[in-house]
Amino acid sequence: MKKQPIGVFDSGLGGLTILNALHRELPHEDLIYFGDTANVPYGSKSKAAVTKFSLAIARFLESLGVKLIVVACNTASAQALAELRRRISVPVMGVIEPGAERAAQTSRNGRIAVLGTEGTVKSNAYPKAILKRSPQARIIQQACPLFVPLVEENWGKKPAAELIAREYMARVQKSGADTVILGCTHYPILKPVLRKILGKHVTLVDSADTLAQAARAFLTARGQAAAQGKGCVRLYASDDPARFKRLAGYLLPGKIGAVRLKKLDL
Amino acid sequence: MKKQPIGVFDSGLGGLTILNALHRELPHEDLIYFGDTANVPYGSKSKAAVTKFSLAIARFLESLGVKLIVVACNTASAQALAELRRRISVPVMGVIEPGAERAAQTSRNGRIAVLGTEGTVKSNAYPKAILKRSPQARIIQQACPLFVPLVEENWGKKPAAELIAREYMARVQKSGADTVILGCTHYPILKPVLRKILGKHVTLVDSADTLAQAARAFLTARGQAAAQGKGCVRLYASDDPARFKRLAGYLLPGKIGAVRLKKLDL
C-alpha cells in the first residue's frame, strides 16, 4: 500500500500547483496527474457534466492502483465530490474542506471572501463548509471567469491583469473581508496583483499547502505513507499533450517529463 | 426541400452572430442552431477532438432533416470542414472561405491580418484560403485567446478590453495591414474597441454577412431557398441550456425562445 501512487486530477493545468505542493510535502510518494484538457474548463459547465468527467477520471486513476485520489479542481470538488465518494472505492480528498478550514482559522473579523469559477460559486460549497466551522461568519462570493484565461495566457504580470482584478475585487474590498480564499487552482499565480490591490492586512488562502498537509496527515494516520525513495511524477492529458507540456512550463518549477495522452471513456 | 431547415452550429454562443446574419439574409428559412456548450471552447483543443465534436453535431443536424449545414465556428471550419464534407451527405459551408474571399477583395496593399483562436491560427486555414485568391498577399496571424472570455463576460466595453486588445494589436499595427479578418464569431462584439485602436483606414472583415450572402446564393442556385412564410429559430445546447439562454441575450437582439438540451453521442 505504501508503494502505491497518489492520483491527482484537475480540469486542466491549474492543479499542477497542487501537484507541486504534494511533491514538496510528500517527497517519497509517486504521483500521477491527470489534466482533462479535452473537457476544460469545468467552471462554466453543469454539475451533471462535471460529475461525468470526474467519475471517468477517478475510474482511470483507480485502474492504475492509486491509494488516494486528490481532486485538485475546485469546481469538481464543489460539484462532484459526494458522487465520487459514493462510486469510487479509493479514498477521495477535495480542495474545498482544507481551504474552508484554513480560512475559518485565519479570519479575525469573521468576514471571508471566496473567489472562484461560476460553477464553484454557484455550488455554495465554500460557504457551506465555512459555516460548519464558523456559524457566525459573513461570506461573500465573487466569480472571476477571466482569471483562468489570463493565467493560461501567462499574462499575470501585465497591466490588464490588474485592471481585471480591480474590477472583481471592488465588491470584496467593500465587504471588509480580512481573508480571501483563492478558490481555483489557477488563482495563486495572481497572488502578487491581488496582494497589491487588497493590501497586506488581507490574508490570501491558497488551498494547495493545506491540502498537501491534510493528505500527509491522512496517509500517515493510516500507515500508508511512503517512507523512502524519491517519488516520481507521471502526467496524463485527455487532449493535446504537447500543448499541455508547453503550458505546464509556466506552472511547474522543474523539468517536465513526458505527457501521455489518455482519452476518457465517457 | 425548400421547407427543410438550415442547421447552424458553433462551439458555444459566438455563432449566434452568424445565426442573426442568416436570419436577416434569409428571413423565410427555418434555422436550427446547435451550441456545443458541453465542449466549449474548441479554440485550444486538438484537431482530432474538434473533428469528433463537429461530426457528432453534424450527424444530429442531419437527423433533423436539414438541407444545409453552416459551420459558424472558425476553429471547426478550419480543422474539421474537409472531414465533415467526406462524412456528411448534406452540403456543408464554413466561415473561412467567405472571410478570405472578402479580405482578398478588400485589401489594397495586399497586407492582411487574421485574428483567431489558437486552433484557427495553427491550422493556417485563412492564409491558405487567401493565398489561393491573392498569391502575392502578405499575411500575419495573431491568436487572441482572451477575446472569447472577455465577450462572454460581457466586458467588451470595459477598459480591460482595450488594454488586452492593444497588446494583441501591436503586431497587427506594425505589419501595416489594411484589412483585418475577425476570425472568430465572438470578435465582432469587440469591433468598437478594435476600430478605436486600428483606426478608420483599416477594414475589419466579419464573415457573418459574407457567409449569409453565400448561403443565400447557394440555396437560390439550387432552387432550394424558402420563398415565403416567416422563418423560425430552434436552439439546442449540449450542456446547461439555462446558462446558454441567459448569455445569448448579449448576442441576440430579439427575444430568445426555449433552449433545448441535447447531449452529443461521442
UniProtKB/TrEMBL annotation, chains A, B:
<feature type="binding site">
    <location>
        <begin position="42"/>
        <end position="43"/>
    </location>
    <ligand>
        <name>substrate</name>
    </ligand>
</feature>
<feature type="binding site">
    <location>
        <begin position="185"/>
        <end position="186"/>
    </location>
    <ligand>
        <name>substrate</name>
    </ligand>
</feature>
<comment type="similarity">
    <text>Belongs to the aspartate/glutamate racemases family.</text>
</comment>
<feature type="active site" description="Proton donor/acceptor">
    <location>
        <position position="184"/>
    </location>
</feature>
<feature type="binding site">
    <location>
        <begin position="10"/>
        <end position="11"/>
    </location>
    <ligand>
        <name>substrate</name>
    </ligand>
</feature>
<dbReference type="GO" id="GO:0008881">
    <property type="term" value="F:glutamate racemase activity"/>
</dbReference>
<dbReference type="GO" id="GO:0008360">
    <property type="term" value="P:regulation of cell shape"/>
</dbReference>
<dbReference type="Pfam" id="PF01177">
    <property type="entry name" value="Asp_Glu_race"/>
</dbReference>
<keyword id="KW-0413">Isomerase</keyword>
<keyword id="KW-0573">Peptidoglycan synthesis</keyword>
<dbReference type="InterPro" id="IPR004391">
    <property type="entry name" value="Glu_race"/>
</dbReference>
<protein>
    <recommendedName>
        <fullName>Glutamate racemase</fullName>
        <ecNumber>5.1.1.3</ecNumber>
    </recommendedName>
</protein>
<comment type="function">
    <text>Provides the (R)-glutamate required for cell wall biosynthesis.</text>
</comment>
<feature type="active site" description="Proton donor/acceptor">
    <location>
        <position position="73"/>
    </location>
</feature>
<comment type="pathway">
    <text>Cell wall biogenesis; peptidoglycan biosynthesis.</text>
</comment>
<keyword id="KW-0133">Cell shape</keyword>
<dbReference type="InterPro" id="IPR033134">
    <property type="entry name" value="Asp/Glu_racemase_AS_2"/>
</dbReference>
<dbReference type="GO" id="GO:0009252">
    <property type="term" value="P:peptidoglycan biosynthetic process"/>
</dbReference>
<dbReference type="InterPro" id="IPR018187">
    <property type="entry name" value="Asp/Glu_racemase_AS_1"/>
</dbReference>
<feature type="binding site">
    <location>
        <begin position="74"/>
        <end position="75"/>
    </location>
    <ligand>
        <name>substrate</name>
    </ligand>
</feature>
<keyword id="KW-0961">Cell wall biogenesis/degradation</keyword>
<dbReference type="GO" id="GO:0071555">
    <property type="term" value="P:cell wall organization"/>
</dbReference>
<dbReference type="InterPro" id="IPR001920">
    <property type="entry name" value="Asp/Glu_race"/>
</dbReference>
<dbReference type="InterPro" id="IPR015942">
    <property type="entry name" value="Asp/Glu/hydantoin_racemase"/>
</dbReference>
